[in-house]
Amino acid sequence: MQTVQPRSLPLRLPRVRPGGVLPILAILAVLLVLVGIRQPDFLAPQSLMSFLGRSAPIILLAAGQYFVIVSGEFDLSVGSLVTAQVVVAARLIDSDPARTWPVVLLLLAFGVLVGLVNGLITTRLRVPSFITTLGMFLILVGAVYLWSDGAPKGGLSEEFRRFGRRAFEDVPLLGRVPYALLVLVVLAVAAVLLMRSDFGRTLVAVGDNPRTAELSGVRVWRTRTFAFILSGLAAAVAAILLGGYSGVSFQAGAGLEFGAITAVVLGGVALGGGRGAVVGAMLGALTLELLFALMNFYGVSGALRSTVQGAIILLAVAVSATRSSSR
Amino acid sequence: MSALSLLPARRSVPGVFVALTLTLTIGWLVVLLDGGQLFNQSTTVSLLHVAAGLGLVAVGQTLVILGGSLDLSVAYVISLSTLVAAETMNGSDGAVLPAIGLVLVVSAGVGLLNGLLVTRFRVNAFIATLGVGLLLKGYLDNGYDGPAGTTAPSLVHALGYQRIGPLPVSFLLLIAVTAAAWFALSRTRFGHHLVAVGGDPEVARLSGVRNDRVLVTAHVLCSMCAGLAGIYLASRLGSGAPRVGTEGLYDLESIAAVVIGGTALAGGRGGVIGTVGGVLLLASIDAIFNQLEVDAFFKQVIRGVIIIAAVAVYARRAMRKAA
């Protein structure tokens, strides 16, 4: 346990240390080279753009999860929240284009609400976030099945789906830029700016040592609740993109919570809070997606995806843990 | 029950038994008003069967949580164990003992891996056991599309369906395992050390406890309990089932049962008796809802609410005590 000085946080990002982004950048570079050797076409702007667009939902979820994890908590409810959002959207829109925007707003509000409830139960009722969000997971999955009698109903309008599947055509140099990528870039910049603001520093301080933060005048419960709200909001946006890209199913969000947590940890963010950068978390998600793409190119069976994911995450965390302890 | 207070940091009677009594009383009344009967032979037996499966896992989970760790890989260990058991037996009664032995060895191996990752490689328990779980998931997804192997008929009969009065043999197995775990926790050096490690690892280390060894042992025992649950499920189902662990949500439900039973998720406080109470509470709610023919999805919603509410009540109590 080394002491962390919250004031120097924004400057810490570029240097190699636990929580830095250099290791994940190195892994990403190696993967890119491997992909380039096997499938040079993949690195052409066109396919790279669409890959980034496809990865946008999980990257956003990783950013959302990052806020919660860096503040010292967990959010296991995001996968079920994505599923719930997609199913709710389909039923409410019911293929009527006029309802697209109201439903989008409703989904965002729903995400905020779920995050708020998670946050308040965790901070005010002092239920460990693991249990709160696990309970929320059960509630959301049960509720969404209950509400739709076991099979998704209705359908998404083309207007709704365009966020996830359409693109700006004929952009100079890049070719086709998916809307999802634009959403991702805007929100990623917002996330980075947020982490550089006072709120970001407070968030990290709360995760590092809640007691110290409390004593220096931070309202820990409010900060953490806000982190949960951000995670819920990220899940809402991810659901809108995913619903557009892959359509409506009860499996829409299955396993995404663990994927997001894997990505965050891979990005050098410490579970338990207080260390790591949001850029690292997002790069972690990108690395994970790239890894899956690579496996695809090498013809590895899709069933083995989880084995590789498991091995990678164990390796990454074990390496960083032994490194930080040997310092 | 007074034996529970042998360890200084423990509550006397876990509140979960109060909740269990209340639930059963109210449930009994509601079911009665509905024109049914909660405590007839078949509902009681099926309640105890549900409790036996979840209970075996949850007792093991209690050990690791007491030590300040966690095991998310149990669901996959269960699935793997049903397959190892059923494929080794392959329908022959003579292979029962080797099969059980092999399951215990395999699951102990997984536990050892979990334990070493958590202690030697200092990987966060959540990530370590999630990672190991994913490794197993890949193996299962890759190798199996559906049920495989056949459980020996004698085992199906003995462990899956045999019962003494209203008590299924599997529930007696749970009682035996719980008793053993209770004894280990309250009467042996291992138990005291485990609680000490969970309470404050640094203090435990400075007082001469070998933290690593204790935690690895807890992880091995936890996985072996999951292995036993796998053997039980294989005997219930008659074959190995590659997804029975995850579909039953045994990972999350076992943790929920432990926490409802009054064991602190952060470790160092609690016990297996409370966990069995938590398991019985979850199983009773299941039985009551089945009797009332409540929608399965609604049941899940209520389950989520109950888990959160139960833990909130404990947290409130702890706060009041601290104040």
UniProtKB/TrEMBL annotation, chain A:
Top-rank lineage group of the source organism: Bacteria
Localisation: Cell membrane
Function per UniProt: Part of the ABC transporter complex LsrABCD involved in autoinducer 2 (AI-2) import. Probably responsible for the translocation of the substrate across the membrane.
Name the UniProt record assigns to this protein: Autoinducer 2 import system permease protein LsrC
UniProtKB keywords: Cell inner membrane, Cell membrane, Membrane, Transmembrane, Transmembrane helix, Transport
Membrane topology: Multi-pass membrane protein
GO molecular function, one term: transmembrane transporter activity
GO cellular component labels: plasma membrane
UniProtKB/TrEMBL annotation, chain B:
Source organism of this protein record: Micromonospora arida
Keywords annotated in UniProt: Cell membrane, Membrane, Transmembrane, Transmembrane helix
Protein name: ABC transporter permease
GO cellular component: plasma membrane
Keyword presence, Transmembrane helix: yes
Domain of life according to the entry: Bacteria
Subcellular location: Cell membrane
InterPro entries: ABC_transp_permease
Upper classification of the organism: Bacteria, Bacillati, Actinomycetota, Actinomycetes, Micromonosporales
GO molecular function list: transmembrane transporter activity
Magnesium recorded as keyword: no
Segments traversing the membrane: 12-33, 45-66, 95-116, 123-140, 164-185, 214-235, 255-285, 297-315
Topology of this chain in the membrane: Multi-pass membrane protein
